[in-house]
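Feature request, filed as a ticket because there's no other form

It would be nice if the structure record came with a short human-readable summary line next to the tokens. Right now we just get the raw output. Example of a typical job, pasted below so the devs can see what we mean:
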Amino acid sequence: MYFYILEFYIIIFLFVLPEIETYFAIGAMSGSSLDGLDIVYCKFTKTENWSFEILSETIANMSCWETRLQNARNLEAEKLEILDEAFGGLVGAEIQAF
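Raw output as currently delivered:
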């Protein structure tokens, strides 16, 4: 049995506000199910205890990418790099729109 993680991106931007302990993070992931792109925006605050808020979105319509990503394991290095850059561009654009 073979398991492939075809594309997995996680991007975290951490912004620290110095006087109050508040952290903001954005993460993005497309896992092996290839059913969509998950984006999450989190806010972590420490007063006496840590608290958090999460806003997330799933972009489910990635059917054209699903086939391309499933076939990625069969690509030559140069074509895989092109696919990686294109998918990275999609992830970046979706984060900007988020």
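Something like this underneath would help us a lot:
The chain has two helices and four strands.
Residues 1-8 have pLDDT under 50 and may be disordered.
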